[in-house]
Amino acid sequence: MRFGLNLRGVVGKILEQAWFMDESDGDQRLPHHRSPPEFVSLDHLADAGVLYWKLNPSDYENDEELRKIREARGYNYMDLLDLCPEKVDNYEQKLKNFYTEHIHGDEEIRYCLEGSGYFDVRDKEDRWIRIWIKPGDLIVLPAGIYHRFTLDTSNYIKLMRLFVGEPVWTAFNRPQEEHPARKQYARSLAEKVGVALAAH
After folding, report:
1. What keywords appear on the UniProt entry (predicted)?
2. Among 18, 40, 65, 70, fewest CB within 10 Å belongs to which?
3. Rounded CA gap, 169 and 166, in Å?
4. Contact (CB, 8 A) for 159 and 87
5. The CATH number of the domain where 119 resides is what?
6. Which of helix, strand or coil describes residue 125?
7. Separation between Cα atoms, residue 22 and residue 167, nearest integer Å
8. How far apart are CA 18 and CA 25, in angstroms?
9. pLDDT tens digits along 145-168
10. What angle do CA 2, 167, 81 make, to 5 degrees?
11. How many Cβ atoms sit within 10 Å of the Cβ of residue 80?
């Protein structure tokens, strides 16, 4: 499945790895499905500005499609991150920080090479969508979108982090309605709604 360069290439496709979350405050590493589960389409994620590709994680160093994505989107910085209790200092505190709702001033680009975890994003109606990323999943979260991250019960993920230019990892915790990236993101959502209405 490929989604991103051709934004409507998988029209209406339902991902069994993205769903609306319930409102419970139990273990953040559990799926938190609603009852019954409500899965989310790639189109719905695209409407929130989230891009998605399915790639081959076993050959990421020579992957031509990954190279094309990086070239097309200007991702000239790359590093790898192993996230698990054994390899990260202050693991519990870092995971708590990652799970605090926030925005960034730039895109957040993550490519899962091993393990799994959850990115939660807010949609246009401010509902949480949980995206379960596994090996081969590359997602791009737009600057200004409210989001958070947690591991699942496997407690391990290996991520490639991509960036345009020098990386800036600063998180701005909600509320950030006056932040320039948040204002630009809100404008882009409003423009999408305007285009959709004009098409009717």
Report:
1. Amino-acid biosynthesis, Cytoplasm, Dioxygenase, Iron, Metal-binding, Methionine biosynthesis, Nickel, Nucleus, Oxidoreductase
2. 65
3. 10
4. no
5. 2.60.120.10
6. coil
7. 33
8. 19
9. 999 999 999 999 999 999 999 998
10. 65
11. 11
> What would the two tokens of residue 22 be?
């319930």
Range of the domain at 45: 2-199
Distance CA 180, CA 136 (A): 32
Per DSSP, what are the bridge partners of residue 112? 159
Write down the residue that tokens 């949980």 correspond to: 130
The answer to whether the beta carbons of residues 136 and 54 sit under 8 Å apart is yes
Per the structure, the count of domains in the chain is: 1
Distance of CA 54 to the CA centre of its chain: 13
What residues have CB less than 8 Å from 43, skipping those under 6 apart? 8, 11, 12, 13
How far is Cα 47 from Cα 140, in angstroms, rounded to an integer?
A: 13
The tens digit of pLDDT for each residue in 49-74 reads: 999 999 999 999 999 999 999 999 99
Residue 92 identity? E
Express each pLDDT in 1-39 by its tens digit.
Answer: 444 444 333 333 445 699 999 999 999 999 999 999 999
Nearest-5° Cα angle at 124, 120 to 125 = 90
Tokens describing residue 93: 């505190």
pTM greater than 0.85 (yes/no): yes
